[in-house]
């Protein structure tokens, strides 16, 4: 018998990150963790083989603190997963939609279902998170209260799905990264490769402009570039970038060489296949 592999995520069972684990690693047992740091630590201590971390949402932008956590984690990106965020109204078994007068969920999800809630006269109640709200409804026994969460939460907590896909926006998607203790630089997948890196520019005029020049002259597409402060200083900025291609591609290799010349430090966080669901 082989030992069951585990993938850690932040949140309670039934969270959207749990759904991402099932989607991207159906052969792994999902391990819920209290914080993102706990999910990373679970991998570092061997309690889990992988970690599933959300990095950005198409509606609300990047996930706070993740970009600063990744470089310090000691883990490497081996995959990405785009998960469509479908919001559903869950309630106690046997409850009808007409009986629901209030719905509980994370404030972000409540804000994404304004039209549906207004149309049905449902009052909003802020919960700590989505899956936790589903659990609270299941354990609370209040017939007129529902929860906004993933269908997976209904499955786990024994709730009925009264309305499916009630979100206001029809394209709300979260991007997740699969993190591993070891890098995987092999070429894989049928949709091309991506490389993620972080770097700090040298303290010279136009350093960022010059550092980016190598990608333009070598025809390497940069799909993301973000900066954030590090070390509690307004003077030290670190940049997070996603580029298309593999570090061994001649054009990418030349661009990275030029980037290295204009930076104080540069770290490749991972090289991984492009998700076919990437927009």
From TrEMBL:
Q: Known catalysed reaction(s)?
A: prephenate + H(+) = 3-phenylpyruvate + CO2 + H2O
> Which pathway does it take part in?
Amino-acid biosynthesis; L-phenylalanine biosynthesis; phenylpyruvate from prephenate: step 1/1
Q: What keywords are annotated for this sequence in UniProt? A: Amino-acid biosynthesis, Aromatic amino acid biosynthesis, Lyase, Phenylalanine biosynthesis
Gene Ontology MF terms: prephenate dehydratase activity
Q: Where is the Prephenate dehydratase domain?
A: 6-181
Q: Which CDD domains match?
A: ACT_CM-PDT (cd04905), PBP2_Ct-PDT_like (cd13631)
Which EC number(s) does the record attach to this protein?
Answer: 4.2.1.51
Question: Any one Gene Ontology biological process term?
Answer: L-phenylalanine biosynthetic process
Q: PROSITE patterns annotated for this entry?
A: ACT, PREPHENATE_DEHYDR_1, PREPHENATE_DEHYDR_3
Q: Which PANTHER family match?
A: PREPHENATE DEHYDRATASE P PROTEIN, PREPHENATE DEHYDRATASE-RELATED
NCBIfam families in UniProt: PRK11899.1
According to UniProt, the name of this protein is prephenate dehydratase
